[in-house]
Design a protein that fits this description.
The protein is of the alpha+beta class. The protein has 21 helices and 40 strands. Pfam families: Beta-AFase-like_GH127_cat, DUF6805, Glyco_hydro127M.
Length: 882
């Protein structure tokens, strides 16, 4: 089986083409010179720019520097072939030249200064590597690099990708890239020879060092590079996986996936007889262990740890098998499905397919390509996601272009630089069509231009053939993938039903296709409901290869939460629906009847969910942008215990909100803080435990202005972290009154909330200025500022009106709270309450009182609870339907 390279393929699908164009524009808006900044510093060369890039590429604080530069080189190398515009190609090439020349120069200069470390190239000093080996590092040698080998893997892979990319394009740069990589491989070998304990080093994430070094060895055939590669093989882990042991729970997900890409690479490289001679007989025998480990790993991940989008992990980790509902809903749904993981799973998947021809790998590939990769890019500007929340109520959050550079931005630029690399494979006389996206592919040895026109809306793909040179073409045989998402298919050759044979998930056409002939295939995709294994009612929909997402509007669409090092993630809007409440008993078994296809001009497909309380339209997740969404919803029966629980949970959240007069929790040095008139001196923001904070240093301060309107008492609540217990600050209210605040160590949990009654005389026409001043070396970190109406929930029931939709109230007895009601057809009762957090029970069922509730003939007891959810009042509705 051979691959067909992207240089032969021109993408014409408008969505995918735009995604690729976005990527190329993004790459060309950056400069290799600037990425070389830190590399030159390390090599004692004068940097080419005044400063380097920031975000994860920074050097002054915790960083991953060099990682993005490596991805950038790989993306340039890939995009060069994907891009067809001559002018843009030239610019991509130029960035590769600069990068490679820069590394060559840095490598040479470093060797002059440190001959014993010849070959080393990096954006950080070697002390970072000493540190992961467990050596003592002096303060001045600290580099604050979290995962140095991970970053170096990206650099090595980037150089090798440029070498491969430019082999037939620009030999000089190609060879230079290989030379630098090879000398770097020598350095790694020398370092490994001195390594006392490789396991210590392997405990820190090291990306795909084994993969890149096996690749290097296959190019250089140097025994040293092979030895270096084996240092990064975790044979113990591979053995366990080869025995199909699921040792993944608790492990950092994206640390594991590249290890298996590397294991498979070892297996692949040594399929070649030329390389086998490097191995002992015992090593040859053991090769199958690497293959089995990669296959089993894939099975374990895909079967037990993967959502319908193809994504895996929560908070970057694998948890217990089949705990996907728990992970997305209970643990913390902000950070499911790191996008890096899907990028790497697709690498592994593609290689497994090439070795096994097992069709399920391509099914996974297609599903993940669409619903995790294409879905991760903002079509407007090409920026990319880190985590992809799977639950309901979330927004998509994308990286900023130049001051974040997350891992997922790195794998992201690679993903979008090779969008067509798995569209076709070639097997003997057959061209295998793997994916159905419009494109044109040149098959030079057959003198053929094959045009695939894929009408994804109508599920029809046509293939036509023309001659590249104008001369006669050599006919080809097509094999079209028969995806699992279609119920049936019909295939025609020149409008006549074609003869075919089904094999390995493909439709092998028996007759060749020649010039001006057309093949047409029509699919009949179906709608599918899927759920997680730990909760059959946590469900999502798929139509054909598309995972559907429910559109939930644009409330707070640009909000984000901090997570990890400088990472931002989507937020869940708690008031938006995360349940689908079925109002008919047969909904589940007949969901295909109730999911009604509708036409939405801007969407590929759309379904309206009928007989569901929440009015939701489902469209493909991948094209959902600028809108809050839900992928998995909790499917509940109307009035069931789970439906009532969901209502209760929302009401509890609402009543917290009802107490709030003004608040600030998002210390972002941006819109949120400036909206409160932020001013400061010697102060900074940061994030800790998933929350943002602000603090001031000695002699420093920060201040905000809040508008607070209340006739009654006003309380100020400040949130701190327990670690800061004992720290103090001076709080100045309206520049008049100073209070000393000391963080107490009371209560439970990570965060501590302290409340203070505000002197009403200080409320100046409804605004109040708070100044937080350091009275010691630094203030405690302030994680939240909230003005509250009260410290307890209201105990008054404020029923404004009972409304009857279609019908009327015929009699009311206010002394007994009895209402006589006549309902006409489709009529119902709505309860209007001043406090939305009040609970309304009808016939002992907690209901959503804002929706018309039909009632049968007879008496219906109603109980309404005040926001304290304790004080109650009984009512009686006597209903007659007419
Ligand atoms: Zn990532």
């Amino acid at each position: 089986m051979n691959t067909i390279k992207t240089k032969a393929i021109t993408i014409t699908d408008s969505y995918v083409k735009r995604a690729q164009d976005n990527l190329v524009q993004y790459l060309l808006s950056m400069k290799s010179e600037k990425f070389l900044f830190e590399v030159f510093k390390v090599a004692k060369l004068k940097p080419l720019t005044k400063e380097g890039y920031q975000g994860w590429e920074r050097s002054n604080q915790i960083n991953f520097r060099g990682h993005f530069f490596g991805h950038y080189m790989s993306a340039l190398a890939l995009a060069y072939h994907a891009e067809k515009d001559h002018y843009l190609k030239k610019q991509l090439l130029e960035q590769m030249r600069v990068a490679v020349a820069g590394f060559a120069q840095a490598q040479e200069n470093y060797a002059l200064h440190y001959p014993e470390s010849a070959g080393y190239i990096s954006a950080f000093r070697e002390s970072a590597l000493d540190e992961v080996e467990g050596k003592e590092i002096s303060a001045k040698d600290k580099e604050n690099v979290l995962v140095p080998w991970y970053n170096l893997h990206k650099i090595l892979a980037g150089l090798l990708d440029i070498h491969e990319s430019l082999k037939a394009i620009e030999i000089k740069t190609s060879q230079e890239a290989l030379k630098v990589a090879s000398q770097f491989g020598d350095y790694i070998y020398n370092r490994m020879m001195k390594l006392a304990d490789k396991n210590k080093m392997l405990q820190i994430e090291y990306g795909g060092m084994n993969d890149a070094l096996y690749h290097l060895f296959a190019l250089t055939k140097k025994k040293e590079h092979l030895i270096a590669a084996t240092y990064f093989d975790e044979d113990e882990l591979f053995k366990q996986l080869a025995k199909h042991e699921n040792i993944l729970p608790g492990k950092h997900a994206n640390t594991q996936i590249p290890k298996l890409i590397g294991a498979l690479k070892r297996y692949q490289v040594f399929q070649d007889d030329e390389f086998r001679s490097f191995l002992s007989d015992k090593e040859k025998e053991k090769l199958t262990v690497y293959f089995a480990a990669a296959k089993n790993f894939w099975d374990i991940v895909v079967q037990n740890h993967t959502y319908c989008t193809g994504g895996n992990s929560q908070s970057e980790h694998f948890h217990e098998p089949n705990s996907l509902y728990y992970d997305a809903e209970i643990r913390n749904g902000d950070c499911t499905c790191e996008t890096c993981n899907t990028h790497n799973m697709l690498k592994l998947t593609r290689n497994l397919y090439l070795l096994t021809k097992d069709a399920r790998y391509l099914d996974y590939y297609e599903r993940t390509y669409i619903n995790a990769i294409l879905a991760s890019q903002n079509p407007l500007d090409g920026m990319m996601m880190y985590f992809q929340p799977m639950g309901a109520g979330y927004n998509k959050v994308y990286n900023r272009p130049y001051d974040e550079f997350w891992c997922c931005t790195g794998t992201g630029v690679e993903s979008f630089a090779k969008l067509a690399d798995t569209y076709y494979f070639q097997e003997n006389e057959h061209i295998l069509v793997n994916l159905y996206f419009s494109n044109e592919v040149r098959i030079a040895n057959k003198n053929i231009q094959l045009v695939q026109n894929s009408d994804r809306k109508n599920n029809i793909a046509t293939f036509t053939i023309s001659s590249i040179s104008g001369d006669e073409v050599k006919p080809i045989y097509l094999a079209l993938r028969n995806p699992t998402w279609t119920a049936t298919f019909e295939v025609f050759r020149n409008e006549v039903k074609a003869d075919y044979e089904l094999k390995n998930g493909f439709i092998y056409l028996k007759q060749p296709v020649g010039e001006n002939e057309t093949i047409l295939i029509k699919f009949t995709p179906y709608l599918k409901m899927v759920s997680t294994k730990d909760n059959p009612n946590f469900i999502a929909f798929e139509y054909g290869p598309y995972v559907l997402a429910g559109g939930l509007g644009t409330k707070n669409i640009s909000a984000d939460n901090p997570n990890g090092i400088m990472v931002r993630v989507g937020t869940k809007e708690r008031l938006l629906p995360d349940t689908l409440t079925m109002t008919t008993a047969d909904w589940r078994e007949n969901f295909t009847k109730y999911m009604r296809p509708i036409e939405r001009e801007d969407k590929l497909i759309a379904f309206q969910a009928d007989h569901i309380d929440e009015q939701i339209i489902f469209t493909p997740y991948y094209e959902m942008h600028g809108e809050r969404y839900g992928i998995y919803f909790k499917l509940v029966n109307a009035d069931s215990e789970t439906a009532q629980e969901a209502i209760k949970k929302k009401k509890e959240w609402v009543r917290e909100q009802e107490l709030i007069l003004a608040e600030l929790h998002n210390f972002d040095e941006n819109n949120s803080e400036y909206a409160k008139n932020l001013a400061y001196n010697l102060s900074e923001v940061g994030a800790f435990w998933g929350k943002r904070y602000r603090k001031a240093f000695e002699n420093g301060w920060f201040s905000y202005e809040f508008s607070v309107h209340s006739k009654a008492n006003v309380y100020l609540q400040l949130d701190f972290h327990r670690e800061d217990a004992g720290k103090r600050l001076d709080l100045i209210l309206n520049e008049q009154e100073t209070q000393t605040i000391i963080v107490s160590d009371s209560g439970e949990g990570e965060f501590i909330s302290q409340q203070h009654l505000v002197n009403k005389a200080l409320l100046n026409e409804g605004t109040i200025k708070l100044t937080f001043k350091a009275s010691e070396r630094e203030t405690p970190r302030v994680f939240g500022i909230t003005f509250l109406k009260s410290l307890s929930f209201e105990n008054e029931i404020k029923l404004k009106q009972i409304e009857v939709t279609s019908g009327h109230i015929t009699h009311t007895d206010f002394s007994t709270n009895e209402y006589e009601i006549t309902l006409l057809q489709n009529g119902g009762v709505i309860f209007h309450l001043e406090n939305e957090s009040s609970l309304v029970y009808v016939d002992n069922i907690l209901i959503d009182e804002t929706k018309p509730r039909p009632l049968a003939d007879g008496s219906h007891p109603v109980t309404i609870y005040a926001p304290d959810h304790r004080t109650k009042q009984e009512y009686l509705l006597k209903v007659e339907n007419k």
